[in-house]
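Below is a filled-in request sheet from our internal design queue. Each sheet records the structural input a requester submitted and the sequence that came back. We keep these sheets so that new team members can see what a complete request looks like end to end.

REQUESTER: design group, bay 2
PRIORITY: normal
MODE: inverse folding
CHAIN LENGTH: 598
BACKBONE (tokenized):
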């Protein structure tokens, strides 16, 4: 029996909502820098420290405070030709990008939302290093919208426009490195109500939102350009936000795994733990790289005993995730340590059986007791182990978790609250012009129209619409070519070139000219693939070399085929003739002449 069959979603009271963040394909939100994400060597680097500030309600957001308490600094990489002083937070923002705002207004209307009378830019405190300013600029554009998925109404209470964060390059204990090429790229953020009650429904809602966004023709495509955050809770549990689900197909797995994790946490019995105990002397000759690094750098190894917990630190709290790993994630998130060691996984990692027994003796462990050790400088080790003790007491909390590729999740930070929001004083409010907003055709509607109007297959119609190919324009400009012929070449010819001939070629740089030559009768319909192959190999193209043969020349070749294959059936002769005349005559013409000569 599969995991999905084992979970009764109604019985456990699954409640789920989505947050979608999609990059828009315009220049950046508050400057004219291009929205190009770069990986090449930077021209400029600066170093910053960030601190949490009081929000509009007079409090410091706990998620921001947790990030600030790590006491890290941040290095930022930039480019002289594609990042400006605004990204470095050395210049106030310019007026909001009109093209980006227009896309968000379009989407707001497409999901039946009410447009706000005045768009006010707000600051959202973010001190994890991903914004040079220590905050993200965000604005509410639409509210009280809704979607209909499988005849069920899904509320979309907020539609916002905001700037994307900087791209992480590397992390270490003392500082993180960010690339500023992504910082400031416009994002549309949509949040649904917690109206979703099944993992597959969550995937369908995310799919519909993605389709609506792509229908604008103004969103970026490719991995990392859209991020889905999934909020999950069950009866007796608490809301958890899973950030960064890249693959739609993985959303149900993430939800199922979070359900299992919350059920484990609900039934968790908090163990009794000891005070922090220094075991540095016990491990002074240890060969573990982590322990050795801590001690050689005048750090310490601290330990706690967990009574009656032997064998439980290695238990799975969800598929692919053990309790020990969960505690390690928490220690990393709160103190910045590389990890921890626990007794259920030892001896291992350079820690010997003898050293394990010495630790147990030092902690006065009984047979059923377990222990955890952390090696780092004294302050960090204390903070990390105290966070582990807190996690034992509060294993079920409102928190933000990171989606991993295997469907598991890892602790990131506490759930942020309203305390992180305050007005942006450098940006004037905007009164949106709603009357002039024109709505694009939905991709789903376009697929149905292509099928009906042009009599092409659903698969071709779907791919044309999803790839934002202006099929209407092609059919208008090349009226003597059938829509099915045009569609087949636009969709299937690039696939054929790639799979059969290992050639990646942008056919759209050449296809207009080729369609025109076919329409004028200069080249046969079947010659397009051969010509594109020659283009891809760097050959100079002379269309006279691909010109169609005359009826007399075709007849000569077919007579030779008949003479060489006496007694062969019509189908075999047709196949041989097609081979001989490939690219020189159309199949219909070959068939006509062959039938006459037969």
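RETURNED SEQUENCE:
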């Amino acid at each position: 029996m599969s995991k999905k069959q084992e979970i009764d979603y109604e019985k456990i009271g699954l409640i789920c909502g989505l947050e979608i963040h999609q990059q828009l394909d315009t220049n950046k939100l508050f400057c004219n820098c291009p929205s190009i994400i770069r990986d090449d060597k930077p021209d400029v680097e600066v170093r910053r420290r960030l601190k949490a500030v009081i929000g509009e309600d007079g409090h410091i957001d706990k998620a921001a405070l947790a990030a600030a308490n790590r006491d890290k600094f941040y290095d930022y990489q930039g480019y002289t030709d594609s990042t400006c002083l605004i990204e470095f937070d050395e210049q106030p923002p310019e007026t909001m990008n009109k093209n980006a705002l227009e896309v968000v207004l379009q989407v707001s209307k497409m999901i039946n939302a009410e447009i706000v009378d005045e768009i006010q830019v707000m600051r959202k405190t973010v001190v994890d290093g991903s914004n040079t300013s220590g905050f993200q600029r965000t604005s509410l554009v639409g509210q009280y919208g809704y979607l209909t998925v499988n005849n069920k109404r899904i509320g979309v209470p907020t539609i916002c426009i905001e700037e994307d964060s900087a791209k992480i390059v590397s992390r270490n204990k003392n500082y993180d490195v960010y690339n500023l090429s992504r910082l400031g790229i416009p994002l549309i953020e949509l949040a649904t109500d917690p109206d979703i009650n099944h993992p597959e429904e969550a995937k369908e809602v995310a799919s519909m939102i993605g389709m609506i966004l792509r229908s604008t023709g103004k969103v970026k495509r490719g991995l990392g350009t859209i991020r889905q955050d999934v909020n999950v809770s069950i009866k007796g549990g608490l809301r958890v936000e899973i950030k960064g689900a890249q693959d739609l197909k993985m959303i149900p797995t993430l939800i199922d795994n979070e359900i299992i994790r919350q059920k484990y946490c609900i039934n968790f019995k908090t163990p009794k733990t000891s005070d922090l105990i220094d075991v540095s002397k016990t491990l002074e000759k240890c060969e573990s790289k982590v322990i050795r690094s801590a001690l050689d750098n005048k750090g310490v190894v601290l330990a706690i005993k967990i009574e009656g917990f032997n064998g439980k630190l290695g238990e799975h709290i969800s598929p692919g995730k053990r309790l020990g790993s969960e505690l390690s994630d928490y220690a990393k998130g709160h103190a910045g340590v590389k990890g921890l060691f626990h007794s259920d996984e030892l001896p291992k990692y350079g820690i010997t059986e003898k050293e394990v027994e010495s630790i147990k003796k030092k902690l006065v462990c009984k047979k059923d007791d377990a222990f955890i050790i952390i090696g780092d400088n004294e302050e960090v080790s204390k903070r990390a182990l105290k966070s582990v003790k807190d996690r034992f007491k509060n294993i079920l909390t409102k928190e933000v978790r990171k989606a991993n590729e295997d469907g598991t999740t890892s602790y990131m930070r506490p759930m942020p609250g309203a305390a992180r929001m305050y007005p942006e004083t450098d940006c004037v409010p905007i009164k949106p012009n709603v009357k002039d907003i024109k709505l694009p055709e939905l991709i789903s509607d376009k697929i149905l129209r292509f099928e009906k109007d042009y009599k092409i297959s659903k698969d071709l119609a779907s791919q044309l619409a999803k790839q934002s190919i202006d099929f209407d324009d092609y059919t208008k400009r090349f009226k003597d070519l059938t829509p099915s012929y045009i569609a087949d070449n636009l969709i299937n010819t690039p696939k054929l070139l790639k799979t059969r001939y290992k050639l990646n070629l942008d056919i759209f740089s050449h296809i207009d000219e080729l369609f025109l030559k076919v329409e004028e009768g200069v080249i046969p319909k079947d010659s397009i693939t051969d010509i594109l192959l020659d283009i891809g190999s760097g050959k100079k193209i002379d269309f006279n070399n691909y010109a169609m043969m005359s009826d007399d020349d075709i007849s000569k070749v077919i007579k030779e085929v008949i003479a060489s294959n006496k007694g062969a059936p019509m189908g075999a002769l047709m196949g041989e003739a097609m081979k001989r005349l490939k690219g020189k005559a159309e199949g219909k013409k070959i068939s006509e002449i062959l039938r006459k000569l037969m």
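SHEET NOTES:
- Residues 199-215 form the longest helix (17 residues).
- Residues 288 and 348 are 9 Å apart (CA to CA).
FILED BY: M.R.
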